[in-house]
Every structure is written in structure tokens, then in C-alpha cells.
Specification:
Strand content: 15-25%
Oligomer: single chain
Radius of gyration: 26 Å
Number of strands: 23
Structural class: alpha/beta
Distance between the termini: 62 Å
Strand order of the largest sheet: 6-5-7-4-8-9-3-10
Bound molecules: adenosine-5'-triphosphate
Number of helices: 26
Mean pLDDT: 75
């Protein structure tokens, strides 16, 4: 039998080589959706199973493997297991798998743990922000968001805990994915034995291959772990002579450890066929068309659950209501035969996971979702996908710094991913709500990488922290514009993370990168510990509350919800409203979540507040590690409000997801920028520009509270120049 090489060890026997179709007992599992087949048999039937030896072989020969295979063929769940079985996790190193979304990390890790017959969090685990389900020394396969791996690189730049990394669903090209790819290229030049798999069903494989092949330096023998903060990636290591000798020797990622260069591997075959249907005439209102399609499916199609893709919370809630209403008038089915679940980022985790649970017998489940579950995830039982081919995408004008959300046609690659959510556990059908000709004519083939259309502030701060000083020469798969670099550097300067020479301010800048929230919220936290503010207790709560989902119970009793919001809302704005909610919750309820008592009456979602408390405690540990004073502002509300005012632009970032408006900062250099006609100027006293109608969230109306913050406070605390602008959701 063939032996497969992996760093430092000979591979043990691969279990599948000895007994294809054989007799091994399936691992004990908690949950097996396909009652006819054991999980082991289900695994063998996946298309990727036939290619496992080629994958192992490719990793022996090449340092970077780009794996392209149909949606559902087994890339995310199976490949890490093959590698684990082949010994890639001996020597205590892990296989790390990054995915763009938290829900994917959680659900795929659970599935793999079941398939391997182990407890989630032990041999197989996941890490997402504020939730680490791994065990040191035990976990061998770790799923995580790409953002989390980036954070890990701050303390371990060479990622020495991993023998192999898989960047899964790389087609998504989030800003984190692109940053990671650029950094991994650097890491691989330093760590000869590290291997990288980049996988997706809809990847521009050739562009990535060119990126990983066209490298000017080859692998260097450097210590595995440089000392913290001292690693200067930009400076070549070794003497000038040795650098000269190396130049021109190898143009690819070097061939250390038995492999060289980069290869593209295609996995043929798909789990089940997915038939795609298009409209014969364009539709006027895609939400209405989606609702009608769901009802048609329910009345005329075979059994099977439905997944509908819409662009945001408002559309989803409207569609959920419309489907429920339409179900009441069905001719040949009862209203109870249809269960409808919304799924979007602002929903609390328990409600998100409810969409994954199997429905009762004879009931058809309909999940109406954003692109949250467009890639990676498997919702068992989904047979039909309804896709209007639209998405709400983040964008920023690099010159003005105006950020906005815009509803735009999705890419063909995204539409393929969406269709791929059917056909995973049985044959499926996808209804695209546009004409076939329009699909190929109007939709771009690939999604424009996020890095080319959004703000780079966090990304550049990370790079600075990793010691990458020459940011413009950092290699991105798709380099952003110079204007975007300038804007982000100005923001970092405004936040105090960089000095006027563009150097990282230590420790402030480092801490802003290390703390697990956005640079703006991190700045607020750090500012709160300074003299003159002294309200870290309050800031910890406000920061924690910004990082959980909406703390209000999602309900259709909109009027009642509005009343509750008014009763808990405070004039100083959202952050203080959230602070108030948190305080009141613990004043009125006992430790445990209490949705029936005070919290239920006030439409406050108890589990979300408890989650915020956990996050608050984690943030406090960070501040204590920095030995920063944690004191309370007590009854001094203006002092706390001053802090909020100084950090007002936080709200911009926090409310892009669910509101109709976006609040923006101006570039430091240009005092005037385009102002939406609906904006009402209250004060233009330099260095502040304040607008009255800072309504930017459909969720919490007193975010209008910007007006309630006395502009005089603003001028008192203004560390830097910013201004706000309202823009209507890109429409
Ligand atoms: N939670 C689950 N419940 C039931 N079956 C599952 C589940 N997760 C995975 N599977 C099965 O495993 C198969 C492979 O899933 P996997 O996520 O590894 O595919 P993939 O190739 O990574 O897909 P994608 O490109 O869409 O991310 C699915 O098609 C499905 O049959």
C-alpha cells in the first residue's frame, strides 16, 4: 500500500484503502439525518471520496492546492478528515479550516464531530469571536472564521499551531479572506512545511494560482516563531549576499518539505442533481414573486423544504408575513402544513439555529434567508431554492469615505452557491426569478472582492500590527485603490492608532488591533479608561451590547415593540439605551434568562443580554491585562454621554446591517462632502458637523438621539475631526 508523506512522519494506513465498501462499524453518532445509511456510508458516497488519494498526493508534491469541486461534494467536511486520518495532525499540530461565516463554522464542525463520533469541542472544534469550542492539546480539526485566524496571527504570526490550513469558500473574497491569502503567502515563505488548500465550487482558480506561483522569494529557513512585535515582514532576512544569491532562484512558493508550487485540483461529480428554472418574463417585484413561487411550490411540487434568498431583515420579515398570510388561503393544503423561518444576522443564535431543525412530519419548512447561508452550510431537507439573484452589498466611496449598503444583482458565482444549497441530501430544484438571458447578460461572473469596495481601516491596522510597515507593497490577490489606502490611513490617524509619520502608536494602536471589536469600539473602550472619562464600567457594557445581535425580541407586534423601545430608550442615543437595557435587565430579573417576566413584558431578549454579559467579562479581562483602571462614571450621565459622543461614529458601523440609513465619517482632509438632501444640519462648528436626522436604524428609533447630544459636548471632547452624513441605503 502507498505511503503518504506529511511533515516529519510517515503516514499511517488510510482506513479507506483497506476496506472500501467494507465492514467497519460506523462511529457512534448523536444525529444521523439519513436513517437508511450509516454516516460512514454517507461519507463514502460523496464525490470527493474518490479523489482523496489525489488530494493527499497533491499535498505531497505541492505546497498550495487549489481545490475546485461542485457544491456539496464534500470539500468542507471530508477533506480535513482525510488529512487527519493520513497523519497531518500528529506532532500536536492542528488542521485549521477557515470559513467566511460563523454559522458555517459552527454547523460544519458539529457535522464533522458527529461523523467522527467525537464530542464537539474535543478532537473537532470551532472558534468564532467570543466562542471557543476547542480543547488545547486535544483538538485536531479546528473550524473558524477567517477573521479569527487573522486575530490569532497577532500573537503567533507564523501560525505555528497548524500543519495545514484550508481556506474554504474562498470565492466569497471577504476582506478577511483576501488579507489571509496575502499573509499566508508570506507565512509560507517562512514555514517550509506548512501546506495550504484553497477550496470552493466557484473559484477563479487561475487568478489564485497566478498569485501563489508568482512569488519573488522562495522559502527561507527561519525560526518557526519570531518574537512578538519584532517580526518585520518587509525586511528581507539574511545578509545582503545571501539575499543576492536567493534572488531569481525560484519564482514560486518555494519547494521545501517535499513539495513545490501550486496546483489546481478539480473534483468531478456532484452529490445530487439540481435542476435550474428561469422566468419567461422579468418580474416587477422580486419579493412578491418569491412569495408566490413558495406558495406554488407548496401547492404543486413534491415534498421537500424551501430556501428563499432575500437581501435583508425588512424584506425577509415582510416575506415571512406574506407567506404565512397566503398559507391561510391555500386550497388543497392546511396553513399548518407550512412552517416559515426567517434567517438573518441580527437574529439571536437560537432563532438562527431553529431554521436548521427538521420540521415535524408532513410539514414543509420554508427558510427565508439573507446570503448568510449562501455558501458552506447544509440545511438538511432543502429541496427547492428560490433565488431572485439580488444581494445587499457593502460599499464605500474611497474618496469621500461614504459607506453604504446597496441592493445589487448578485454574481453568477453566488447564484451557483445558492443553487447548491439544494441537492445536498436529495435531488433539488432552483427557481431563479429572472430570465435566463438576463442571468448571463446582467450578472457579473464573480463577486467583486470586498477589499476593492469597502473601508480598509481594520485591515490596515492588522497589517501594521503584524509589522508590515510598507502597506502599499503588501501583496493582495486584488490590490485596493490608492484612495482607499489613503482614507483608511487617515481614519487610523484620526483614531490615534497611527502617528503623523504613519507609524503604529504603541501601545494604543496595538491594543486597538488586539481587542476583539472594531477599531472604533476598541478606541471607545480604551478612551473610557483615560482621565476625564473614567467610565470603563459603562463602556464595557456598551461595547459588549454593540457586539451582540439585536437585544429586542423579534415580533410582529410592531406597535407594542415601539412602546417598549420608548419606555427603555434614553435621549442620549442608542449606546446609552443599550446600557440602560442591560442595567434594567439585571435589576429586574434573576440570573437566568426570563422571557416571561420583566424581560418578556419589555420585549427584551434575555439570552442576548446574558451573552452580552459574557462578552463584557471577556473584554474586562483584556483591560485588566493591560492594567487599565476600570472605574464607573456613576450617576454622571453627561460624562458617559461625552464618551459616546467622542465615539459616535461607532454607530455607523453598527447599524449598516439593518437600517435604511448609514452614518458616515468624512475624510479628515475634506471639510465638505456630499450630504443627502434629507439631512438637516444642526451645527457646523469646526471640528464637528452634526445633523439632526441621524436616523439610521429601523430597529431603534431614538438613534435620532444624535441631536440630543449637545454639540458643545462634542467640541469639548473632539479629539479629531469627523462629520456625519446620512444616506438612504444606496437607493
Ligand atoms: N448538517 C448536515 N446534515 C446532513 N447532511 C450534511 C450536513 N452537512 C453535510 N452534509 C452532507 O455532506 C455533504 C458534503 O458537505 P460539505 O459541506 O462538505 O460540501 P462542500 O463541498 O464543502 O460544499 P460547499 O461547496 O457548498 O461548501 C453534503 O452534500 C451533505 O450531503
Amino acid at each position: 500500500m502507498q505511503q503518504y508523506w506529511r511533515p516529519g512522519e510517515r503516514a499511517p494506513q488510510l482506513p479507506y484503502d483497506k476496506e472500501i465498501g467494507g465492514s467497519e462499524e460506523p462511529p457512534s453518532v448523536v444525529w444521523n439525518t439519513n436513517k437508511n445509511l450509516s454516516l460512514d456510508e454517507q461519507r463514502r458516497r460523496l464525490p470527493v471520496f474518490r479523489h482523496r488519494l489525489s488530494i493527499l498526493w497533491a499535498l505531497e508534491k505541492h505546497r498550495v492546492v487549489i481545490l475546485v469541486g461542485q457544491t456539496g461534494c464534500g470539500k468542507s467536511t471530508q477533506v480535513p478528515q482525510y488529512l487527519c486520518e493520513a497523519g497531518w495532525t500528529s506532532h500536536g499540530r492542528r488542521i485549521g479550516v477557515t470559513v467566511p461565516r460563523r454559522i458555517a463554522a459552527m454547523t460544519i464542525a458539529s457535522r464533522v464531530a458527529q461523523e467522527m463520533g467525537v464530542k464537539l469541542g474535543r478532537e473537532v472544534g470551532y472558534s468564532i469571536r467570543f466562542d471557543d469550542q476547542t480543547t488545547a492539546g486535544v483538538t485536531r480539526i479546528q473550524y473558524m472564521t477567517d477573521g479569527l485566524l487573522l486575530r490569532e496571527m497577532i500573537s503567533d504570526p507564523l501560525l505555528s499551531a497548524y500543519s495545514l490550513l484550508i481556506v474554504d469558500d474562498a470565492h466569497d473574497r471577504t476582506i478577511q479572506t483576501d488579507l489571509l491569502l496575502g499573509l499566508l503567502k508570506k507565512v509560507m515563505k517562512k514555514r517550509q512545511h506548512l501546506r495550504l488548500i484553497i477550496s470552493s465550487a466557484t473559484l477563479d482558480a487561475q487568478a489564485l494560482k497566478a498569485f501563489f506561483t508568482d512569488s519573488a522569494a522562495d522559502a527561507e529557513d527561519t525560526p518557526e516563531k519570531p518574537s512578538k512585535w519584532s517580526s518585520r515582514w518587509d525586511q528581507p532576512t539574511g545578509s545582503a549576499d545571501s539575499r543576492k544569491r536567493k534572488r531569481g532562484s525560484d519564482r514560486g512558493i518555494g519547494g521545501g518539505g517535499g513539495g513545490g508550487g501550486c496546483v489546481v485540483l478539480s473534483v468531478e461529480g456532484r452529490t445530487h442533481p439540481v435542476e435550474v428554472e428561469y422566468l419567461s418574463e422579468p418580474c416587477k417585484d422580486y419579493v412578491e414573486a418569491a412569495v408566490k413561487t413558495v406558495i406554488d411550490i407548496h401547492e404543486h411540487e413534491r415534498d421537500g423544504d424551501v430556501l428563499v434568498f432575500l437581501t435583508g431583515q425588512e424584506e425577509i420579515e415582510a416575506a415571512v408575513d406574506a407567506i404565512r398570510e397566503a398559507a391561510r388561503h391555500l386550497k388543497n393544503r392546511t396553513p399548518q402544513s407550512l412552517h416559515v423561518h426567517p434567517l438573518y444576522a441580527a437574529l439571536p443564535a437560537d432563532r438562527q439555529l431553529a431554521a436548521f431543525a427538521p420540521p415535524p412530519r408532513s410539514v414543509r419548512k420554508v427558510v427565508v434567508s439573507t446570503n448568510l447561508c449562501e455558501a458552506s452550510v447544509t440545511i438538511d431537507g432543502i429541496v427547492f431554492v428560490v433565488d431572485p439573484c439580488y444581494v445587499k452589498a457593502k460599499a464605500a466611496d474611497a474618496n469621500s469615505g461614504v459607506s453604504y449598503l446597496v441592493v445589487a444583482p448578485t454574481s453568477q458565482a453566488s447564484a451557483t452557491q445558492r443553487a447548491g444549497r439544494a441537492g445536498r441530501t436529495q435531488p433539488g430544484k432552483c427557481y431563479r426569478l429572472l430570465r435566463e438571458a438576463d442571468f448571463s447578460r446582467l450578472l457579473p461572473r464573480q463577486t467583486v472582492p470586498e477589499i476593492m469596495r469597502t473601508d480598509l481601516t481594520s485591515a490596515l491596522l492588522y497589517l501594521k500590527c503584524l509589522g508590515i510597515d510598507n502597506l502599499v507593497s503588501f501583496e493582495f490577490v486584488s490590490p485596493p485603490s490608492l484612495a482607499a489606502y489613503t482614507r483608511a490611513l487617515e481614519s487610523l490617524y484620526a483614531l490615534g492608532a497611527l502617528d503623523d509619520k504613519g507609524k503604529l502608536v504603541v501601545p494604543l494602536g496595538v491594543r486597538m488591533a488586539e481587542l476583539p471589536l472594531t477599531p472604533e469600539v476598541n478606541r471607545m473602550l480604551l478612551l473610557s479608561t483615560e482621565e476625564g472619562y473614567g467610565c470603563a464600567e459603562e463602556a464595557l457594557i456598551m461595547a459588549a451590547m454593540t457586539s451582540v445581535k439585536s437585544p429586542w425580541i423579534a415580533t410582529r407586534k410592531k406597535d407594542y415593540l415601539e412602546l417598549c423601545k420608548l419606555s427603555l430608550g434614553v435621549a442620549e442615543g442608542d449606546l446609552l439605551t443599550y446600557f440602560n437595557m442591560y442595567q434594567q435587565y439585571f435589576f429586574h430579573t434573576s440570573e437566568e434568562s426570563d422571557d416571561t417576566g420583566w424581560a418578556g413584558r419589555h420585549m427584551v431578549h434575555g439570552p442576548t443580554i446574558l451573552r452580552a454579559r459574557d462578552i463584557r467579562n471577556q473584554l474586562e479581562k483584556h483591560l485588566r491585562r493591560y492594567k487599565l483602571p476600570i472605574s464607573s462614571g456613576g450617576q454622571d450621565t453627561p460624562r458617559i454621554a461625552r464618551l459616546v459622543a467622542a465615539s459616535l461614529f461607532i454607530n455607523a458601523a453598527q447599524n449598516q446591517g439593518n437600517g435604511k440609513y448609514v452614518l458616515c465619517r468624512s475624510p479628515l482632509s475634506s471639510p465638505v462632502m456630499s450630504i443627502h438632501p434629507s439631512s438637516v444640519l444642526v451645527s457646523a462648528q469646526p471640528p464637528w458637523v452634526v445633523f439632526q436626522e441621524a436616523v439610521f436604524s429601523g430597529d431603534t428609533p431614538y438613534m435620532q438621539g444624535v441631536t440630543a447630544i449637545d454639540p458643545r459636548w462634542l467640541s469639548a471632547v473632539a479629539p479629531h475631526y469627523f462629520h456625519m452624513n446620512l444616506q438612504r441605503d444606496g437607493r
